[in-house]
Structure formats: structure tokens, C-alpha cells
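DNA-binding MarR family transcriptional regulator (Nonomuraea rubra), 145 aa
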Amino acid sequence: MTQEDATRTIGYQLKRVQAALRAAMDGALRAHGLTTPQYACMELLGRQPRLSNAELARGAFVTRQSMNVVLRNLEDAGLVSRPSTAPSGRALPTRLTEAGERTLEAARADVLAIERRMTAGLDRAQAEVLLRQLDDMADALSGPA
């Protein structure tokens, strides 16, 4: 592959889309007082309350240390709650507060609008094919080489 055609690779284009999506989300989420990692964490908790720090970090694609900071900031803002001690083991199960649920609902509407804008050129069938293809690509890279 020459340097000239490096931008025509699927990996490059995926990274380009990811960067544009992140920038759009950062801008929209700022109005809700959230960062993209905070929003991702809240989405995960909205679907599955009581996830551990490690589970949230994996789902939000950040390190456990970064998730600790995300959770602390969300807790300080009154958007999530965690017990002061773990009910069992070391994991502190986290939940959205009522304010967190309201913030998530409002932020989700903006994020879904961004996704609709991003996929406006695709019909439903094309979007489904793309989703399957992206899943397949992720699976291909996460399995044994």
C-alpha cells in the first residue's frame, strides 16, 4: 500500500467517522454538562443498573482508572449514586439518580439526532447490513489471530 492510498482503507475511514462522531457528540453533550465517556457510562447504567466499575469501563471503552474519574464526576453532579461500601466483594454497584435519568433522556435525544444525521444516506436495510458488517469486523479482531 502506498502512502497515497492509505486514506482509502476501511480502517482509516472508520477512524475518520469515529473522530467526526466524537466531535459532534462532544458538542451536543456539552449542553447537558456531560462528556462523551460520561454519556456512555450513563447509557450503560440506563440499560443495566448496578454495573461494576470494570464492566462500565469495558462498555465505555475507557480504562478502569478513567472510569473512576467519570463516576466520581457523575456522582458529584448528582447523576449517579454508589454505596459507600460494597454489598459483597469490592464492586460498588452504581445506579442513575432521578436527575441522572432525566439528563440521560435529554442527552440521548441529541445523540440519536446525530446518529440520524450520520446515517441519513442509508435506508433501513443498508443500515442493518452495515451494523452486521461492523459487528463482524469487531468480532474478527477480538478473536484469536
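The longest strand covers residues 80-81. Residues 33-120 form a domain with the Arc Repressor Mutant, subunit A fold (CATH 1.10.10.10). ok done for today
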